[in-house]
Amino acid sequence: MDLHLKGKVVIVLAASKGLGRGIARQFAEEGAKVVLSSRRQNELIQVVDDIKKETNNAHIVPHVCDITKAEDIQELVNFTIKKWGRIDVLINNSGGPPPGGIDQFTDEEWQRAYELNLLSYVRSIRAVVPQMRIQGGGHIANVASSSIKQTLDGLLLSNTFRAGVAGLSKSLAQELGKDGILINTIGPGRIATDRLLELDETKAAKGNLSLDEVKKKEEQAIPLGRYGTPQEFANHVVFLCSSANTYVTGQAFVIDGGLVKAL
């Protein structure tokens, strides 16, 4: 299927590794013009160079951005509009907050998680909407977690703010539909990224298990019997943000190999 993404302008937040990198690469493969953002300049430049070589797409550029800073997000949006004159797709993405329960976090840690995993999404959407309205529409994908359907043990901060992202998307789908802006939430299950490795290492240390033992146990709970790949996750995101999707908005999806049992 031709997704008609060639020449479309895409911003991907937190794109230097993991799901963000996978999504950016998939858009590049489809011929889109992609702006990758991350706080770490050296990593970002290397990823951009790698994606250019892997996809033979020269229209891939880096822009350093700390998504917890409102001014950085606005500068990223301004840069994109100045360079390519429009924004067709925004991919909101962020690293996960630390694991833990109610007794383990200070007010400052709650505030940091809020700014990283929810407020950054609000700010970036607010920044791109005026341009999307001018051009007659666009697509927004909010990357969250499978906890938007079923909470995850030991991940209180993530459970709280990822649910907020789902509520944000549902509300904005109602508000922005008249402007031709489609917005959806996509939650990864157990996708093989550095973040998942960190969580598995925490489980291994807590349970006095090896990483292989943790992985085997986790995979047994997944109907497809394995962890997913960033590309598998990216395929779904790219489809939802392409011209192939003209009628799906305000929805929350999980890409999890069947792991989540909630309806």
UniProtKB/TrEMBL annotation:
GO terms for biological process: bile acid metabolic process. GO terms for molecular function: oxidoreductase activity. The keyword Oxidoreductase applies. CDD domains: BKR_like_SDR_like. Pfam families: adh_short_C2 (PF13561). Keywords: Oxidoreductase. The keyword Repressor does not apply. Belongs to the short-chain dehydrogenases/reductases (SDR) family. This is Dehydrogenase. It comes from Shouchella lehensis G1. The lineage of its organism: Bacteria, Bacillati, Bacillota, Bacilli, Bacillales.
